[in-house]
Amino acid sequence: MGKFKSGFVSLIGKTNSGKSTLLNSLVGEKVAITTYKTQTTRTAIKAIINRESSQIIVTDTPGIHKGKTKLSKTMIDTAYTMIGEVDCVLFLIDGTEKEISKENDEILDKIRLAKKPTILVINKIDLIPKEKILEIIDTYRKEYDFKAIIPISALKNDGTEEIIKEIEKLLPEGPKYYDDEEYTDQSMRTMAEEVIREKALKLLNEEVPHGIFVEVQKFETKETSKGLPFYNIEANIYCVRESHKGIIIGKGGEMLKKISTFARKDLEKMFDCKVNLRTWVKVKEDWTNSDSIVNQKFKLK
Fold first, then answer.
1. Whole-structure pTM over 0.85, yes or no?
2. Hey, where are the domains in the chain?
3. Tens-place pLDDT, residues 57-99
4. Domain 188-297 belongs to what architecture?
5. Is residue 178 a contact partner of residue 57, using CB atoms and an 8 Å limit?
6. In the chain, pLDDT over 70 holds for what percent of residues?
């Protein structure tokens, strides 16, 4: 058996290319929230892949998009900063796109500048004919000297093992940075915030979700009368407008109840423990342009 390898990988791609789905598939655990809506990932999320001969720390970065708010600009800065700080880059593209988009062109420029070993991953191959995949490979091969080009379907978990093998080839010998049982660097509090936001993203209409963020106010371990442990979580869902507050709460509180119920069920699975979850909705106007909120919650530490 060869020497143990370890290292850091940045997962980058335009918004809605399937990065969070791929990350969860690589790790085999729910690390990042996933929705069909754009700009789901807002911060750099680390996932730890533990293998017999390696430990791979993959950072899922916010999707590249056209952004005007302070939040959007911070998200894009986070994604690009991570390219220069890793051993290799996973560049994920949506195989259903007909040509190289402006965002992917921009990402290619940043990769060229960083001169990092890069693996191109073509996602959603289950939705396109084989000849189209060959065309995409040919197009991108002319743009950069990729260490490998791997067609996959993140949703169907097809091709992910190949990605891990190719990453291992590019990593240096090194120690274990995390214990074997760890699969993310996120705190349970952060994971709770993200799961609540995921349910809101999935259940609310297009306009509302991008103007929300979630903050856990209380996260404590308690015991039932029978001595069984459970987590008591209280969280605020913040939105940008009073009219959005009414939509999130819903008629007779139905929407908020639905968001909380789905979130609680997910958290109980993740934490393997009963969860008591209480949520409130509050308005923070124009928070996406607030330096204090964006820097505190979303800026790369």
1. no
2. 5-170, 188-297
3. 988 776 554 556 555 565 556 656 667 778 999 999 999 998 8
4. 2-Layer Sandwich (3.30)
5. yes
6. 80
